């Protein structure tokens, strides 16, 4: 940490001078210098990455471009451009907050990219980062096959990223996004406006409770799936996110089992459930070894996301219900 600076306070020119100790004078600092400097500071401070970008230099790039009001796809030729002293102060203040407060970069910039789309992101909901983005941009193929899709449900929608991105790429589908959190739903509504997706309906509900007899051809969900022990031990960055989006019992499966139990009542005849359980994958296959879950292979490998057909959920319903009911 640079001595003499604190979190929220935007530094004055004087404190900027203190902060730049070790940097060349401001007339000589370029955009690329700042990115390199931020990357080094973030690494040496031991920050945790992975909310949007998985490394220090990409996060530094995101923060620098945001503070300089430059587009995220800025041509590299501008990397050599020098920054002004006020710009330098703005960038360093943002770096300092990232380091001191461990705020995820997306909350500092107010923006997260998901499925190639720009979402508003703040502490009302988790930073969008699900690998389900890859399924959305590939039209959920090959999983949908010959199925006709009219209605899709995104359970646990958070910022609305899965529902809204799906609706964006499939304008003929009607997508319902559900969340229990009023705060998350208010952010999702803002994202619905931002991305102009009138084919999305957002609803407050405890999982399927408010849906009555509605049926969907596809249910997609990224529910909370972090175990109690893991939630308690998460790096400081995660403390800025709502715990309701993370904690899911001793084995991470409290929500997933309820979803597996109740999904058949809301899926059409040959409907599909796609569900993310992350590292709770092993616990789930231990509990339900006979249930034919297909674990999806992503570009980067398996990510704890399965697809299952309604017929298989119906066949194994008794055992799933027993497990889910035992959790109250
Ligand atoms: C892991 S976050 C996923 C958010 C978003 N789908 C995404 O991928 O970024 C899980 C979401 O589930 C919501 N949630 C937790 N328990 C719920 C429940 N019982 N019913 C509906 N939503 C719930 C949380 O508020 C949170 O927004």
Give short descriptive properties of this protein:
328 residues, alpha/beta, Rossmann fold, 9 strands, disordered N terminus, binds S-adenosylmethionine
Task: Compose a concise summary of this entry.
The chain is built from 13 helices and 9 strands. It is of the alpha/beta class.
Shape: elongated
Would you list the SSEs in sequence order as H and E?
A: HHHHHEEHEHEHEEHHEHEEHH
Fold-level CATH name of the largest domain: Rossmann fold
Which ligands, by name, code or SMILES, are bound? S-adenosylmethionine
Which CATH class of the largest domain is shown?
Alpha Beta
Major β-sheet strand ordering? 5-4-3-6-7-9-8
- Main β-sheet, in a few words? 7 strands, mixed
The radius of gyration computed from the alpha-carbon positions, rounded to a whole number of angstroms, is: 22 Å
Ends distance: 47 Å
Structural class: alpha/beta
Low-confidence stretches: 1-18
Beta-strand fraction estimate: 15-25%
CATH homologous superfamily name of the largest domain? Answer: Vaccinia Virus protein VP39
Mean pLDDT: 92
CATH architecture of the largest domain: 3-Layer(aba) Sandwich
Helix percentage range: 25-40%
DSSP, total strands: 9
Enumerate how many helices there are, as a single number: 13
